[in-house]
Amino acid sequence: MAVTDAAIDKIKGMIVSGELAPGARLPKEADLAERLGLSRNSLREAVRALSLINVLDVRQGDGTYVTSLEPRLLLDALSFVVDFHRDDTVLEFFQVRRILEPAATAMAATIMTPEDIDDLKAILDAVPDNPTVEEMVANDLEFHQRIAVGSGNTVLASLIESLSAPTTRARVWRGLTQEGANLKTQEQHLAIYEAIASHQPEIARSWATVHISGVEEWLRRAL
């Protein structure tokens, strides 16, 4: 194992064990290096690597702290990787969405409050008459993300948000080339909303599956 990797593992072990809690300040560099049996250079490289993935927060003139370790923060690194996707992998992103989003939709149908449901309806109502493809796609992204947040699972919501960007261009492409795509999207969104509003998780799951599978199948044929 590379020296830097070993240093990363040792710091990770301190966090996982609870010795360093979210928000905690790391000991001084010299003290920590001696304690972990590391050179100061190896420790610096480890700290730099962990700061890039938002595990540590290096504050100039103050010290190095463990971040909040919230899923949204830690999954920013996934978003960075996802940005490098190739066009020939976009279908795979839709396949992952088809696995995750119906589950999130079913969960949302179980726990979303009346206020949450009103917010979801407001997103649907914000679509103008005869929307452009860009307006429809923007609304689609907001609608699905609100449901993901409504699932109550922050990890799931962050994963779904990370997977949205690579599919945006395909959604626009479909809107431009498939007749009636906007209307179909609105109808399916309404069906999903009604299932959530009436707290019918399995119906909500089914409509979400139909909705995402339709775009996936169109893309499969188009490719």
From TrEMBL:
User: InterPro entries from the entry?
Assistant: GntR_C, TF_FadR/GntR_C, Tscrpt_reg_HTH_GntR, WH-like_DNA-bd_sf, WH_DNA-bd_sf
Q: Which CDD domains match?
A: WHTH_GntR
**Keyword Nuclease (UniProt):** no
Q: Which GO terms describe its molecular function?
A: DNA binding; DNA-binding transcription factor activity
Q: Which SMART domains match?
A: FCD, HTH_GNTR
Q: Where is the HTH gntR-type domain?
A: 1-69
| Alphabetic keyword roster | DNA-binding, Transcription, Transcription regulation
One of this protein's Pfam families, by short name? Answer: FCD
Instruction: Spell out the protein name for this chain.
Output: DNA-binding FadR family transcriptional regulator
* Organismal lineage: Bacteria, Bacillati, Actinomycetota, Actinomycetes, Streptosporangiales
